[in-house]
Specification:
Layout: E1 5-11, H1 16-25, E2 29-34, H2 39-43, E3 48-55, E4 60-61, E5 64-65, H3 69-74, E6 79-82, H4 93-106, H5 115-130, E7 135-138, H6 143-156, E8 160-166, H7 174-185, E9 189-194, H8 196-203, H9 209-230, E10 236-238, H10 243-246, E11 273-275, H11 283-292, H12 297-300, H13 320-339, E12 348-352, E13 358-362, E14 365-378, E15 386-387, H14 392-405, E16 409-414
Bound molecules: xanthosine-5'-monophosphate.
Length: 427
């Protein structure tokens, strides 16, 4: 293994993730382990250099004092116990030095955590886990599944089979990009399933947002399952699980690292062994890994996109013509934000169309068309959000383009609502 490791032992701190980030920012790899890890398990971790007991006041786990000292002390590794003030934003500058001193002087770690070393280690580990077996991956084209695909192509090449289900609710150009990048450029074994009609037929006339979400989720699993059954003899399923998915937030401790979870909600009789090569990476590390593996920048820096896709932006019962208008207007917005240098600055932006028409006038005749609503927001964690204030001239230019280029649209509005009380999406 290329990287030194510091183990964070979770004793009930809600700041495990921030502590992990602090240490990784110093160039040293770290992982969080539950408080009941044994001395043998700790010592068996590759390149382990030291352990940090990260606890709340009095080392309380789940309301009970615990004796972690025996396992960790007995293993003979350099050890430090902290009560998390050194990682809080309010921490005195000196406290970070204490952490640095422990990592570099006491544990003698080297600054050898970087994505290149991570990739090298993962390739080795993946080859060991997979052997000559085949691996299946649901490749959505989102950041995580794309990076998993690129990593697995590097490690096992044609033993990876990617299935890309186009549910007809993707943004303009997305399915084509998946085929271009993975099927052609990276030479992956790619099964492209055009299931747009199937999804849209199922969704016809369904107005309730929750019902729409359920239909899309369930149909996705059905299509994927059908494809998986056609591909006989595959034992492994790759997933884009990332570290924040498995590190519990809050103080429900003692379970800092969850057992594997079946993210896709696949039926239990599809028995797969899981391959989750990104499960120790934070989102920005996943992106850096994707760039190092040669994925296009726009794929790696893609903004968040809900699983139900444009289905939740074509409000109410989805119709094909209104869905196309959402897709086209969204493409114009993305292109213009990109040209204006806003694509890396604004957290999320998109268009949506409500199931409402208004009167207008076009070519000296009355028209009765939809409004396009533009939503652009900034946020840290998507729990609260504030609207972006784009330049009027830019908004006016985008409006002109949408009104001339997108059929069936006669108005463009800008959503100024913060979250709360509004949510980011409309459905
Ligand atoms: P809201 O609308 O709740 O959205 O403010 C917060 C963030 O979550 C995204 N979002 C979803 N992501 N599946 C997803 O994977 C979904 O069903 C879903 N709904 C909302 C949304 O785009 C925003 O970034």
């Amino acid at each position: 293994m290329k990287q030194d490791l510091i183990a964070i032992i979770d004793l009930g701190s809600e700041h495990n993730s921030s502590l992990a980030r602090k240490i990784r920012d110093m160039g040293v790899y770290t992982e969080i382990y539950p408080h009941d890890i044994s001395a043998q398990e700790l010592l068996a971790l590759p390149n382990i250099k030291g352990a940090i007991l990260n606890g709340g006041p009095n080392n309380i786990v789940g309301g009970h004092p615990v004796d972690v000292s025996s396992a960790v002390y007995r293993c003979g590794l350099p050890m430090m116990a902290i009560d998390h003030p050194c990682i809080l934003p309010t921490a005195e500058p000196g406290s970070v030095n204490v952490l640095k001193d422990f990592v570099f002087n006491v544990c003698a770690c080297e600054k050898n955590w970087c994505v290149e070393n991570f990739i090298e280690d993962q390739v080795e580990l993946l080859r060991k886990q997979i052997g000559n077996r085949k691996v299946l991956l649901a490749l959505s084209g989102g950041v995580d599944s794309s990076v998993v695909a690129a990593l697995l192509i590097r490690a096992i090449g044609k033993q990876l089979v990617c299935v890309h289900v186009n549910h007809g609710l993707l943004r303009k150009g997305e399915p084509e990009q998946v085929v271009e990048v993975f099927g052609k450029k990276l030479g992956a074994e790619l099964v492209y399933v055009d299931a747009a009609d199937r999804f849209l037929d199922k969704l016809a006339g369904v107005e309730d947002p929750e019902k729409k979400r359920k239909i899309i989720g369930a149909e996705f699993i059905r299509v994927f399952e059908e494809e998986a059954r056609k591909l006989k003899g595959i034992e492994l399923l790759a997933q884009g699980t990332i570290y924040p998915d498995i590190v519990e937030s809050g103080t429900k401790t003692g379970h800092a690292v969850k057992a594997h979870h079946n993210v896709g909600g696949l039926p239990a009789d599809l028995k797969f062994e899981l391959v989750e090569p990104l499960k120790y990476l934070f989102k920005d590390e996943v992106r850096a890994c994707g760039e190092a593996l040669g994925l296009p920048s726009d794929m790696v820096h893609r903004q968040p996109f809900p699983g139900p896709g444009l289905g939740v932006r074509c409000l109410g019962a989805i119709t094909r013509d209104r869905l196309e208008a959402v897709r086209e207007s969204d493409a114009i917005l993305r292109e213009e934000f990109e040209n204006a240098g806003l694509s890396g600055k604004v957290w999320q932006y998109f268009t949506l169309i409500p199931d409402v028409k208004s009167v207008g006038v076009r070519n000296n005749a009355r028209c009765f068309d939809w409004p396009v609503i533009i939503r652009a927001v900034n946020t840290v964690d998507a729990m609260t959000a504030t609207p972006e204030y784009p330049d009027w001239a830019l908004l006016s230019h985008i409006t002109d383009r949408i009104l001339t280029e997108v059929p069936g649209v006669n108005r463009v509005c800008y959503d100024m609502s913060p979250k709360p009380p509004a949510t980011i999406e409309w459905e």
